[in-house]
Amino acid sequence: MSDVGAGILGFVGMSALAGVLVTAAVTPALAVTGMAANNSITMFENLPGYLQPGELSQKSNIYATQADGSRLLLASFFDDNREEVGWDAISQYVKDAAVAGEDPRFYEHGGVDIQGTIRGALKTFTGEDTQGGSSITQQYVKNVLINNNTKKATNQEEFEKAYDEATEVSVSRKLKEIRYAIALEKEVPKDEILKGYLNIAAFGGRVYGIESAAQYYYGKTAATLALPEAASLIAIVNFPDALRLDQPEDEENGAATVVKGEVVPYALNKDRRDYILDKMLEYKKITAEEHAAAVATPVAPAITAPSTGCQTAPGAATYFCDYVTWVIKNHYDDPATTDVNEGSMMLRTGGLDIDTTLDLDLQARAEQAMAENVPMVDERFDVGSVAVSVEVGTGKVLAMVQNKKYSQDEEQLNSSAEFESINYATDYAYGGSNGFQPGSTFKVFTLGEWLNEGHSLSESFNGNRRVFTSFPDSCNGTWHGSFDPKNDDGRSANNAVDATKYSVNTSFVAMAQQLDLCKIKATAEAFGVKRADGNPLGTPVSEPEWTFQPSAVLGTEEVSPLNMANAFAGIANNGSTCSPIAITAITDANGEPVAPPASTCTQSVAPNVAAGMSYAMAQTFNGGTAGASNTYTGVPHIGKTGTTDDNKDTWMNGASTRVATAVWVGSVTGEADQRRLDDWDSGPVATARHRMWKSIMTLADEKYGGGDFTKPDQSAFKQVLVDIPQVSGLSFDAAKQAIETAGFVAEDGGQQDSNLPAGTVSGTDPTGQAGKGTTIRIFTSNGSMTGVPDVVGMTGDQAEAALKQAGFKVQRQNENTVDPTKVGVVLSQNPAGGGFAKPGDQITITVGKLGGGGTAPGDD
Questions:
Q1: By three-state DSSP, how is residue 260 classified?
Q2: Which fold does the domain 79-296 belong to in CATH?
Q3: Whether residue 10 has pLDDT greater than 50
Q4: Class level of CATH domain 787-850
Q5: Residue 524 pLDDT
Q6: Three-point CA angle 13, 130, 7, nearest 5°
Q7: How do beta strands 721-723 and 769-771 pair?
Q8: Which residue, among 324, 317, 312, has the nearest Cα to 401 in the 3D structure?
Q9: DSSP classification of residue 853
Q10: Which end of the chain has fewer CB atoms < 10 Å from its terminal CB, N or C?
Q11: Please, is 280 exposed, middle or buried when counting C-beta atoms within 10 Å of its C-beta (0-12, 13-18, 19+)?
Q12: Could you give the CA distance from residue 211 to residue 215 in angstroms, rounded to a whole number?
């Protein structure tokens, strides 16, 4: 027998079998004879009886709240551009078009249309597409199987494999569809099936479901579609790749065809549309007038592309949007499953509505400040800049801007330095960089630990420039080496307030030397500070050991601007640091709430310590380094500037009691010296941070206000006195070392007369006690002094002889006495005996004589 003959017989047999199976499913009591039929029915009945539709893949939306309380869509994310809607949200034209065009007997059959099934069996057997012969219920079943199979795919290869399994051209798949369709009709009302079908159907490309199709192709909702629009959309379902309405109009895809000399837009779609309109008229779903008007209407889509990814977010909110996506991906990912990122899947398929913390007013001001002060590209260096604001006490991220256009497109990224995919504001794990050195803004953590350890703001210390050779470190053992920090200018400061106000490097290093490097690191970590690359604070010396170097006190650890803004918010919040959050609420595709990532507040330092930190940091605006950032709104601020070596990075971080803002300007790569560059249009490069911070915080002050910072109690201002070492008799170098080790400043006071050997230390000024950092003058002996004999009690002559023998001149004077035993005896001397004087100096002795009423020896 020929292949053609065998094929015909096979088709006839399969058609008969399909009819038997359908009949058997609908009427199980029917006696069916024939071994082949019986075996097929047995196989058919052994298939699972009911298909449980999985959650449909739906797009997720990220919103910001506008001033009037309404939502502003920032971006949408989807594998399938789908938005499920209810029965009443779908135009009756759509429902009637689907039934008339795809399955006219939908409301009559039990899930399978016999005629259509036989027609589909022919297509299946001959290897053609199977869709044309399926009922709406079968098509719905097929799409559910595709959705259930492909939803867990994590890459394109897995997706294609799952799709092929769900759509393979085979008798067994067709039988499975039939079985499921029949079972489904027994459990679910017809209208629910039709609604499900319209919500799951493919409409070309990544567009799924009637609502998204209506929005994409016509900029309308599914409820407001006109008759010809509804028919055109249902036409697409028949053959999505060929009949979609967003392809270029050319002859190859039939988007535009010349008919009788006239161009017919989307001719293939119009043919199918008009066929559906004819069927709608045939089944009395529309009037002849409606039909005629609809057929005469050209196919004229109004493509309204959906927001697809953060690049479509308005303005510079693109980077904030990107941060939100990373929060979702990281927070909802299950670390136990390494092959699937559940957070990413939720974002792409979960139909989430995500409301965020973004303050659109503050965001707009930050965008303006950035645009006015930092260019996207500077031919002289790889310029980067970030401004990020956080609400004090809640951790809400209010604004986040960058001096670049956001893109994830490799072609765009390679085309211009204006584009950037990396969010400079955040940590690497949240789509950010490996961080930037914060410079002197990091000094606030040494200030915090200084107060933590009971030191005071008024306590003095030696802040002079010098080489530091050792630092206590309880984590790694005492650090030994040679650290020679330099100051930005010649200023010195010998207390914590002045050190902060003027940002004196050597002063903070001097404070750190009296502390514990490990505890300084712990204080920074208590405020949530960590390296942006995810590693612990500290510079790697040898893996896996990490140490926190003395240079870190001055800000050499690479951190993110968001991290620093949040830490300053913690200081402003009486020492309670709230982890940053970007999301206020999430609802899933069913409108059910999903718990968003919550902010966790931790008491980083005691409130009185935070008050002391705030007091010192407030002085930076009062003639200190942050003066150029002063908003003059009357709202108090705390702040700290930062500049890294050779002016590569410049920072301004600060806060009111309501809002904290960090601004960074620097070299993303390379090390340009900002102070040596010619000005930008807005002013010097190195002070752009001040111009931006002032602009942003001026609006923050006006919108959020801000109160006085808590004042520290008197213990924060106590003066601490310590003993001045006794150094008499030591060499000058030994005395200097002892005094400096004790925390004082040693100064050469020159030589003085002394009986000690020449060159040895004869004394200090002051002596006793003083505050650390006090200048102590060290005097050395010239060896010129000798001891003065004690002659009190000797006769005048004896005393004079003794003193002259010792090399001194003698002056004798008398003093009346009533004690006869004191007559002629030395009553006192000056200098006193036991003291010292130069040889040849005059010693005055006072000798007693009878007077004042006394009697001479032997008198009565």
A1: coil
A2: Penicillin binding protein transpeptidase fold (1.10.3810)
A3: no
A4: alpha beta
A5: 98
A6: 30
A7: antiparallel
A8: 317
A9: S
A10: C
A11: buried
A12: 6
